[in-house]
Amino acid sequence: MANVTFSSPRMKKDLTVYAVAGDTRTLLAVAQANKVPLEFECQNGECGSCQLQVTVLSGKTPIGVALTEKEKAVLRFAGKITAQQIADAETKDLPPPWRLACQFVVRDEDILVKF
């Protein structure tokens, strides 16, 4: 089970919501269900409008990061992640600082989401 804290200047205050880990809903779906004003357009990982920073709050080693191919391409092209960060995600399970809300599936760890 995970607590997801959304933080943005577009919100009056931070909002922490409970997300069921592993239910395959994306971070975008969790945000929409809780009326968090995340920007998005295509919802399929091609436009990059839902890019955001994700920080694991547990202090433990983050759980495996499964970046989609679309996410790698869009975030790399936008200059948000490097080739080394992609390699580290794939080989060392080290999460990159930026993700796409429409591609990121919540894991069993508390996270801070900045947008």
Write a structural description.
- With 115 residues, this protein is α+β, with helices and mostly antiparallel strands.
- The chain has one domain (2-114): Roll (Ubiquitin-like (UB roll)), CATH 3.10.20.
- The chain is built from 3 helices and 5 strands; from the N terminus they run ββαβααββ.
- It has a 5-stranded mixed beta sheet with strand order 2-1-5-3-4, with helices on one face.
- The mean pLDDT is 92.
Describe the structure concisely:
The protein is α+β, with helices and mostly antiparallel strands. It contains three helices and five strands. Strands 2-1-5-3-4 form a five-stranded mixed sheet, covered by helices on one side.
Instruction: Quickly give the structural class.
Output: alpha+beta
CATH class: Alpha Beta
Give start-end ranges of low-pLDDT stretches. Answer: none
Give the count of helical stretches.
3
Largest sheet: 5 strands, mixed
* Whole-number mean pLDDT: 92
